[in-house]
Amino acid sequence: MAKGNRCHCPKSGKRSFSLRRPKSRRQQTRSRSRRKQSRGRRPLPAFFLFMKDKRCDVKCANPSWDVIQMAKKLGSMWHQQPSADKERYKRTASQLRQAYKGKRSQSCGKTRKRARTR
After folding, report:
1. Which of 20, 25, 30, 49: CA 20 to 30 A from 77?
2. Tens of pLDDT along 9-54?
3. Domains in the chain, number
4. Residue 46: which residues within 8 A CB-CB, separation 6 or more?
5. Residues 61-90, mean pLDDT to the nearest whole number
6. Which of 44, 55, 45, 51 is nearest to 8 (CA)?
7. 64 near 12, Cβ under 8 Å?
8. Which residue ranges does the record annotate as region Disordered (predicted)?
C-alpha cells in the first residue's frame, strides 16, 4: 500500500483517502502527548497484513463499496488463499511480534504482574 492511508488507483487516476475526519488542533496535541507515554503500537496479525496488501486492489476494482463489503471480500479472499501464501503472512507477523517483544523487554526490563485486589 502507498504512504499512510492513501491508495492510488491506476485505473481512475484518483486517490482515495481515509474516511476519518481531520482532527482538531486540541485533539492532535492530546494524541501526541498520549503517544509519547505509550509503549508503541502492537504488531499486526497475519490477516491484517494481508488486508494491508490487498485493500488497495479491492478498492480500485470496486470504488463504490463501503468498508463492510470490502472486509467481507477480503475475508473470503483470505480463506481462499493457499496455505503457502498464508504462511508468508504468518511468518512476517511472527517476526514483527518477536521484534516488538524484544524491543519492549529492553525498554521495560522485567514485566510486572498486576496485584489482585479483593
Report:
1. 20
2. 666 655 555 556 667 777 776 666 665 555 678 899 999 999 999 9
3. 1
4. 86, 89, 90, 92, 93
5. 95
6. 55
7. no
8. 1-46, 78-118
